[in-house]
Amino acid sequence: MLTNASQVLLRNSDLVKDQTVLVLNYEGDTLPKTLLESASSVSALALDFHHHLIMQPYAAKNLQLYFGHQLPNQECFDSVIVYFPKAKALAPYLFNLAAKHLKPQGQLIVVGENKGGIKSLPKQLPDYFDKAFKADNARHCIVFTSELNRQAPAVKLQDWYSKYQLQTPQGEITICNLVGVFSEKKLDEGTKLLLDNLPKMQGNVLDFGCGAGVIAAALLTAQPTLKLDCVDINAMALASCELTMQANGLSANVFASDGMAQTNRQYNGIISNPPFHDGLASTTNIATDFVKASAANLVRGGLFHIVANRHLPYSDCIAENFGNVNVSAENNRYKIYSNIKN
User: Fold this and answer.
1) C or N: which end of the chain has fewer Cβ atoms within 10 Å?
2) What is the pTM assigned to this prediction?
């Protein structure tokens, strides 16, 4: 089933007839494959690893699929389609990336939901694109088109992240935060409670939903002998975490994983301020799947140590998978769950 944005693109597929097409930031469906009914070839870059896995079985010579924050090549295309991001700060980066992969006078196509900020696109397009033209408005989505009118600046990561110092209970750390990755430029309340109650960990540890690497950097600063895996589903978060590790002279294994499906070892500890949003909606499935996978991936005697909003349904799931529920600290908004696997 195609998302609303993809359905609107599909009904405008004549825009890319017989063209080479790049799709950036596509959603959780198979639109890149469906475009081959009109386009001569399609390449697609997913910034969400789950979306990449949905498409991966369809990879072919005329359907090149990538996951990450950039393409691994300098190929240029007749048209680039951008799905307007839910994190609006990411939009200018995607436009810059699109421009670097467009042929001169190449076509930019941007689609997004009305509630996601797409209406502001004409004001957001950089001046190396022509004025945006509204090509369609349907299914609560808008499709805009534009044309590349001059060469865009090179895409350099250092132009797209903020670097700042963060005071933690483990000492001062440097955070490198790319556009589109959640950051308050201060220690958020949940993470602060987690780090205020950081246990002694050992061996192989997993930081689940690592984001920009705040927990990872604080943990390794305090306990540098740990062998730390940092996983996330978001390409910009993973790149941010790698930059944060480098900025602090720390070392961790940072990689994409859909839940824990791509982890390949048993852990002595799992630590997290776990995500609970899927797109614009909050979901309890993320919480329950995470707890179940954690119990399966911990060695006997391994430590499960997370912070979560009080209203999220962790207690029943933890009790079911760990045999009991241990709340080691809490305040009026968050709880620290800290359980040992029997």
Assistant:
1) N
2) 0.95
